[in-house]
Amino acid sequence: MEPESDFKILRAKRLIDGNGGPSLNNQSVLIKDSEIVAVGDTQDIKAPDGSSVEVLDFGDKTIMPGMVDAHTHHVGFGAGRVGDEVASYPDEVLTIQAAKNARRALLSGVTTIRENGPKNVTSLRLRDAINEGLTIGPRMHLCGRPVSIIGGHMGYFGTTPTGPNQCREAVRQLIKEGADYIKITATGGSTQTSLPLRPSFNLDELRSITDEAQKFGKLTAAHCSSTQGIANSLDAGVDMIIHCIFQEPDGSNNFREDIAEQIVAQQAYVNPTLHVFRSSIWKLMLKHEDQGLSTAEQIELDEMRRGFDERLEHCARLLKMGAKVITGSDSSWGNYLLGNTPYETECLVMAGMSDSNAVHSVTNDSAKSLNMDDLVGSIEPGKQADIIVIDGDPTKKITTLWNVSEVFLGGDKIERGSDESLSAVRQHRPVADPE
Length: 435
Ligand SMILES: [Zn+2]
Description:
The protein has helices at 83-87, 91-107, 122-131, 163-177, 203-215, 227-235, 257-265, 275-291, 295-320, 342-350, 355-361, 364-369, 419-423; strands spanning 7-15, 24-32, 35-41, 53-57, 62-65, 67-72, 110-115, 139-141, 182-185, 220-223, 240-242, 269-271, 324-325, 387-390, 404-409, 412-413. The chain folds into 2 domains: 7-65 and 378-423, Urease, subunit C, domain 1; 67-365, Metal-dependent hydrolases (TIM Barrel), CATH 3.20.20.140. Strands 1, 2, 3, 4, 5, 14, 15 and 16 form an 8-stranded mixed beta sheet that branches. It has a 5-stranded parallel beta sheet with strand order 9-10-11-12-13. The chain contains 13 helices and 16 strands. By secondary structure, it is of the alpha/beta class. β1 and β2 form a beta hairpin. α2 (91-107) packs across α3, α4 packs parallel to α5 (203-215) and α10 crosses α11 (355-361). The protein binds zinc ion. Zinc ion (ZN) binds at residues 71, 73, 116-117, 330, 333.
């Protein structure tokens, strides 16, 4: 084997640095070990005299930061299984499933993930295994387990405190186990025993969670599938509102301008998780294209479409008001398989985000929302060399995010395998819903 060079230089026709601007022409990136050392015009970027350097020229392609997906579920199957069923699998099986998902994510160009709901210590042990070199996956920002109420959404994953003291205890326990941030389920959700239209924790419980997390410098993110949960989470100072569904206890949709204003004023991040919803629509559309639908299924499809349009509209209003919206896919939850993050970014564009801002939402903005922008999210000296190479310019057309041809994690080129194995990662859209 040839000895590794001291430096790597990546160059291409276009570079997107991840800071939100347009793409730049004829740039090069100088990498030493895992770190970016310099970025600039190709004629100016050179390794120091006397050092060995490997130059990788990607011709007319685009170099950009690896994608940062702020919302994943590595234990999920992405094949329609509900959470209750996922949680019934033994931890050993779920850890292997998580490893499969992690590999898929990395091969697709996602180089950092924030895990939003694993069971017991599965994700923590998976990260250990990746660090040991047993398997590959993106950088992992972990919650350990979500904090839920008894019978509440994701309570089956193992942490269900009651009262402010137990809530503090839960946060301390998760941090002791290695959690990087604290995920809260502030309302019910798809969990069979939970009530999605009702809040879960009381305000004093939520406040003790955020207070304890803040004390240790950890961010908080709250699952909110109805309005009162959003309001409570904001009052408790939660840093990220997940789903952000404006729904009343009677199930009616009602965008609350006052709460949206509070989101903007508190600079809370919003992770709207649009495609996980659309993926269930697509599942029915694909069934329709394949074998047809029953009358009941057709009615369900029409209802889901109306719901999706409403969620797009609410997201559009949040964007117009200046809310900080980032890409967090929610895969492999429900029908949305990890390795397909661009579908969520595409939905943000459907809600009115520009292509250029959408690229930002899945790179440096997303990294900022995780407090990881000192490490990843953009191509800048001092950051980790998490870089992908793309055919096309996603700042002009977001769907070119699919055209990943190379992935580098911490300066190492990832072996992505055959086209056949890569195409197995991709979920396809229905013919009736073209790009
Ligand atoms: Zn989720």
